[in-house]
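Title: Prediction job returns without error message
Component: structure pipeline
Severity: low
Priority: P3
Assignee: unassigned

Description:
Job completed but the reporter wants confirmation the result is attached to the right record. Sequence as submitted:
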Amino acid sequence: LIPRSYLRFGQFFMNIGRLNRFHQHDWPFTRAPKVHRTFFDDEGIYDTGLEYSYILPTTHTINLNLGLTSGYRYGHSHTKGSKPKVPTHYGRLTSFFPFSSTNGLETGLNYLGRTDAQNNQLQIIGLDVTAKWREARLISTLIQSEFWYKTSIDDFDKTAKEVGFYIFNNFSTGQQSSFGYRFDMYNDLTK
């Protein structure tokens, strides 16, 4: 309906970072990195809301994604939650750089903010990078990384700052097998 646009409404995993956009069963590893578990939960964050994506009219592929969700819950939850003071809002600006017709690099700048019902404020900024090299339909090499910085302020005006990242390298060893390793780093800067 709107050229160069994508709109979705309902309950979904928010389009933020690399991992959070996919269900855990589609990740290239079995357990979420420490920074992801700490900032977003084991399975990622999803909620009910509206998300709009627009491919900017530039010579280079740049995609702007904006979202607003109810904010009643954050992380994995089976309860309705409480009405937040400021609903969850987020944005992601991505760009794709092709190396060839089958290989490329995607980068993304991310922001997420919210204030829950107890007046706890949360702001997260991040950068994600994903590079893939393909041989026919097989991904021969995958390099994936995310860097996140989180600031939270509780209802007593106590500020907490945390930072973390991971880098994951994966190499194909055959049609149905691969070998990968991941390095995780997390630090609570307020301690």
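Comment from assignee: result matches the submitted record. The chain has a mean pLDDT of 91.
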